[in-house]
Design brief:
By secondary structure, this protein is an alpha+beta fold. It has three helices and five strands, in the order βααββββα.
Length: about 80
């Protein structure tokens, strides 16, 4: 199952519809394979990862014990990492 933190859902909904259409399949695919090829585990976090689609990043946490992928942020490459430190 994939779920969004409220702030991440707000960020996702603010994106234009074309970009949402590009990101949505990648996010939905995390339910079947939360660690796809090219995923990167973020340093300084126990279970936070990122995938990218063009200039956008999706930061998420994997909670294996409850079979949940929690999207914690969606945004452009330049600023997404600074606000998550």
């Amino acid at each position: 199952m994939v779920d969004f933190e409220p702030a991440a859902l707000h960020q996702f909904n603010k994106l234009n519809k074309n970009l949402q259409a590009r990101l949505k399949p990648k996010i939905d695919a995390l339910a079947k394979n939360p660690r796809p090829h090219g995923v990167k585990k973020l340093q300084g976090y126990e279970n936070r990862y990122r995938i990218w689609v063009g200039d956008y990043r999706v930061l998420y946490e994997i909670h294996d014990n409850i079979l949940l992928v929690l999207v914690v942020d969606v945004g452009k490459r330049g600023g997404i990492y600074r606000k998550n430190k």
